[in-house]
Amino acid sequence: MQSRYIFLFHSILVSVGLYCTSAVAQQFSFPDPPLQDDPGFELIFDGKTLNGWEGDLKYWRVENGCLVGEVTPETLLKRNSFIIWRGGVTRDFELKVEYRVSPRGNSGINYRSVELPDQPWAMRGYQADIDGEGRWTGQNYEERGRTFLALRGQFSRVEEAKKARVVASLGDSKQLQSHVKEDWNEYYLIARGNLLVHIINGQVMSVVLDEDAKNRRVEGLLGVQVHVGPAMKIEYRNFRLKKL
Q: 51 CB contacts (<8 Å, ≥6 apart)?
C-alpha cells in the first residue's frame, strides 16, 4: 500500500513538471529553480503597497519590500487575523513565497479558503503552517475545519468522516525541520486536484491526498496569518503565483 502512494506522488510530481532523479525522488526532495527561471509565475504583491490585499492595518504593513505582520504586547490578538489577497481565487495552482518569522512567531499561508462572514479577517481552509519554534512548520492544518491533515514528514490520505491516515513517510520530522533556516526560507505550495504538497527550501514537508468530497475545497481565497499568543513578527516577500 505504501509503495502505491509513493508511486502516485512521484507520478503527479512528474505531471506538473517537477521531474527529478530517481535518487532524489525516493527522498521526496528536488531542487527549486532560481527566481528568474519561473515561467508562468506572476507577482501578486508589489513590495511597495498593500494594493490587492485587505486586512487589519493594526497588524499589517509594507516595509523594506516585505509584507509584514506584527503583533506587539499592546495589540495581542483574541483570535487569528489574516490579510487576504483580493486578486482572485486559488484553484489548481503553484505558489512560491519567501518568509522570515520571529523566534516565537506563528503564521501560515491559507489557500482554497473562505472568509468567515461573522468575524472580521478570519478564514477557514487549508493552511501551510509556519512557526519560529519549529513545531508546526511545513504541516497542512485546516484552519477552523478538520484541523491536522498532515504533520511534517507525513503523506496522508483523508476520507469522509474519518481522521487523516498516514500512508507513507516523507522523513523524520526533526530532520526535515533542519532544512528550515532561522533567516529567509522559501515556501513552495502545489495544489492540483485533491493533492496538496508543501515544500520548504526544496524539501517536501507534507502531502495530503484529500478524498473527503464532502469537506474538501477545490477553490477559495488566499491569505496569510498573524496568530494569537505572544508578540510576534512575520515577513513575506516575492509572492509568485502560477495558475494551472
A: none
